[in-house]
Amino acid sequence: MNEVNISLFRAINDLGFEYPSLNSLFIFIAEYTVYALALLTLIYWFTRKEKNRYMILTAGFAFILAEILGKLAGKLHFNYQPFVELSNVNLLIDKAANNSFPSDHTILFFSFCVAFWLFNKKNFAWLILAILVGISRVWVGVHYPFDVLVGALLAALSAVFMYYLLPRLPIVQNLLGVYERIEEKILPAKKERNKEFDQ
């Protein structure tokens, strides 16, 4: 299994040596798309649409669950990042040496992107983004493919679980209702007003 993991890592990471012009793109995907995800999440939340808010809550709780499962998986298996264990790695970003199994970055993106896709099944861009982020973590040299695959699996399963569970929980519905009443008092929603014109 370890040999397969290393072979897959080399196949992806060595592409950075073969196609150096793509390195900047994968650095951006690996490091900075998280800011775009955060911004989009805020925008979705403040649309004040019920569907979008349940989507974000589902994603957030899926991430928490997947992170817990990921930490448990990390207790069962340990491996350093590829740049620590292997020679001639195309390392493109700074990363502290620690247990890289599973990939936290992948867990974050798959938790949110799979949840977002479940609420908008026609929009496959979310799944494509999550996959690109997973690949980018290998391309830049900070994770093995199995780190990414396990992180993606844990996150996807957590997202599906929360998708079917969370919107049906009365406590979530009640808490969201309380939040929205407070929000309406602090930031009243703009309402269309009928204007009467004097003839």
How many helix segments? 9
How big is the Rg?
A: 21 Å
CATH topological fold name: Vanadium-containing Chloroperoxidase, domain 1
Total tally of structural domains: 1
Fraction of residues in helix: 55-70%
Report the biggest beta sheet as strand number plus sense, adding barrel if it closes. none
Low-confidence stretches: 192-199
User: Mean of residue pLDDT?
Assistant: 92
Q: What's the CATH class, please?
A: Mainly Alpha
Terminal CA distance: 82 Å
Query: Based on DSSP secondary structure assignment, what is the total number of beta strands?
Result: 0
| Proportion of beta-strand residues | under 5%
Q: In one word, what is the shape?
A: elongated
CATH architecture: Up-down Bundle
Order of helices and strands: HHHHHHHHH
Describe this structure in words.
The longest helix is centred in the N-terminal third of the chain and has 27 residues, at 50-76. This protein is mainly α. The protein has nine helices and no strands. The chain has one domain: Vanadium-containing Chloroperoxidase, domain 1, CATH 1.20.144. It has helices at residues 2-13, 15-18, 23-45, 50-76, 82-85, 104-119, 125-139, 145-165, 170-186. The N and C termini lie far apart (82 Å). InterPro entries: PAP2/HPO, PAP2/HPO_sf, UPP_Pase. One of its GO terms (molecular function) is undecaprenyl-diphosphatase activity.
